[in-house]
Amino acid sequence: MRRYRLKISEEDYQELQRLVFADLPKEAGAFLLAGSGSAGAVENILVRRVVPVAREHFITQHEYRLEVSAQAVNGLVALCEANGIGAVICHSHPEAIPYSPSDDHGERRILDVLREFIPPGAPTASLLLYPGGMDARVWLPGSRRPVPIDEVLVIGRAIRRPLLRGARGAGFSASEIYSRQVLAFGTEGQCLVSSAKTAVVGIGGTGSACAEQLVRLGVKDLRLIDFDRFESSNLTRVYGSVWADACRRLRWPWRRPLLKAEIVRRHLARISPEAKISLVSAHAAETRAATALLDRDLIFICTDDHWGRSVVNQISYQYLIPSINLGVRIDSKNGEIFGASGGVDVLRPGLPCLWCKQFLSPDRIAAESMPVGERQRRAQEGYVEGVTTPAPSVISMNTTVAGLAVSTFLQLLTDFMGEQGSVSRLNYDVLSGTVSRGVSRPANPCVCSKFRGFGRLRPLPTVDVVRPQGGVAVTTFRVNSVPQPQ
Question: Is the pTM above the cut of 0.85?
Fold first, then answer.
């Protein structure tokens, strides 16, 4: 059975409440521009931004009746048509009174007109807000009756779920295994952790450390995305790997090394046999890897290449999926460390993305997206730097940064940090042993503002990657939109 969910940023939600509650006890209204994205059996309605309606366009405004002008409706239609996007009609009631027949008629009339000017798949929905709660529903093409929206997610310093009329909180019977965590976060907090569909992109030093912590915390649906195969040097930093994995190539040189993600999945299955640990053997920039991220609630970005990070960075804002980016850098020369640091970035609407922070390099992405043979040749010629050179890596430093990232994950789910939980960047200086907060603002224009909330209504910059039997990856340069389930 198809379920419907609406996602909105905390900033947009606060602005929407301010607008529709401005004239209480009289009703008031506003519009939302919204994209959409399918995620398995769930259809997400993704709020791009709030569109206010000026008071002079309320031609009727009483305690239990609101009518907006044709000019306001035409303005909404023009906006949606110009942007190729859908809309959500919002208004308030002074009390917890459900949709009225007048609401039904007015919404149907506006949305039937709107649907003639927007792309197929663009959402048409409505929100009814009242003090202490809300109703929400989606109007499907060809249907005369709306379908209830099952869940509303407000994405801010934590992910909130305002209770819809008639909805119940998710039930959860806390296992004795998680009793110490229940003491910290409560049964509801443990339920939120266990029910969070999570992905880790890049299963190396930081990714494997994050994956193990997540499973031990009780995450029951974890997706691992990585196409790299295990090398003997990975033994020192990939959690779950053992001596036999490092010796496999020596004992059976004719066999292909195991995938790093497969080794980690084997390990995690022993920790939590009831957890669903899925694996996608693909580069983060491949279409099938991107598709595998679209049903996730949170994503950890642990890949060490700029190309993969840039794609997941865009997914985070285009599909309103909060992501946590992390990495460690060690600067050394002749066996001596002269600098070591780590960082954790929270990517969500309202916070700057990796492009805003200038953490992504177009030149590096261009080099990483070259076919392997060309990349190696250009590196030998000196045109490409830092792409093929192995970087220093130490498990203790990786684990420290992974721990900071997983604690940030817990904040997004449980809000245990309260007002201090609005984190954009954490900087870890290894040599001084200090952690500080980084502050920056979203750039405008930027990828995060340009594609925010469009979902499947805009293509993702993914590619098809074909691997011949020889094992060498050959990139075919074709930008794809991610296919959506029907």
Answer: yes
